[in-house]
Amino acid sequence: MSDRSVRGLWVALLACVVACLAGCAATTAGPDAGGPPPGPPGPGVVQAGSVRVLQLNLCSSGIAGCYTGRSTAEAAAVVRAELPDLVTLNEVCQDDVSSLERALADAVPGGTAVSAFQAARNGRTGEAYRCRNGQQYGIGLVSRWPSVPGSSAGGGIYPAQDEEDPEERAWLCLDVAADRAVAVCTTHLAYTQREVAGAQCRYLFGTVIADMRARDGAAPLVLGGDLNLGSGDSADLRSCLPAGSVLADDGGQQHVVATPEFVVAGSRTIDLRGATDHPGLLVTLAPTGGRPEPGR
Question: Residue ranges of the Endonuclease/exonuclease/phosphatase domain (predicted)?
Answer without folding.
Answer: 71-278
